[in-house]
Amino acid sequence: xxxxxxxxxxxxxxxxxxxxxxxxxxxxxxxxxxxxxxxxxxxxxxxxxxxxxxxxxxxxxxxxxxxxxxxxxxxxxxxxxxxxxxxxxxxxxxxxxxxxxxxxxxxxxxx
Length: 111
Known about the structure:
Blueprint: H1 8-39, H2 45-66, H3 75-110
Helix pairs in contact: 1-2
């Protein structure tokens, strides 16, 4: 350990930040559950899934930024984490898109 100790004010500030983050994540999660239970049968699956993906990425961004302290790092370090993540997400979407095209082709051939 470094031997540094937090002052009472710094400690209380960090405790408040943790509770604020917990509340923020809980609110988003409750909104997700309410949408799933109330609008699950009403909205098209694509819209519903898109909402869940957006909210999950929003929560993940907040968790990475706040709890992994990336938002306090230099811009270059944050980009070195964010850009590969965006390419990974793009790759998943591209493979899913291509897979659905393959499925369409197989279904067409089996007719």
